[in-house]
Amino acid sequence: CNFCEKRFNASYDLKRHLMSHTGDKPYSCVFCEKSYSQNGTLKEHLRVHTNEKPYSCGFCEKKFKANSALKRHLMIHTGEKPYSCVFCKKSFSQTGNLKEHLRVHTNEKPYSCGFCEKKFKANSALKRHLMIHTGEKPYSCVFCGKSFSQNGTLIKHLRVHTNEKPYSCEYCGMRFNHNTSLKTHLKIHTGEKTYSCVLCEKKFNSNTEMKGHLMTHPGQKSYACEFCEK
Fold it and tell me: DSSP 3-state assignment of 78?
């Protein structure tokens, strides 16, 4: 190659490579205005329009438009994780997952909210956050019709109807709807008291207990008038 030092066995390979320097894109899409330097890349792009999926997974029924997408998917079945974190020992099947994980260590937050100043490590976290501003609630309860912005919040809410209690106490066997309820309960067994009274030195297992205790101090009144300061 006259532009770089690369060498090729075949004249065809050299011609194809030269297009990366000249910017020549002779292969055009008949559906949109996109052009490509290689015919193979055009063929792969056309599947966006035709939805053709010629690459099939041998383990499940999934099909893919690109061979590279199939290769990434196969790692789910084979358990292969070639991408390793340089900070810890975690490995990942996809380079995108590794990049997202690295932000746990670097604290990089490349995704910014257009409504407020919050930043996020993952695009999925930004999308969830945006629903707070847009008011979008795509997750609906099948029992009462209540809607939620996040699927996790819907799952928690469903337990009100199903009475499912997936969190159990290792000390007494009591079960709870939410992990937060279990954590509060565990303090009864461990004796941990994380909530302190600001007026005296007493400590409590829960914030509710602490607030109730505050009312025992003279001058503490929990209910305020919204029209005056009483």
Answer: helix
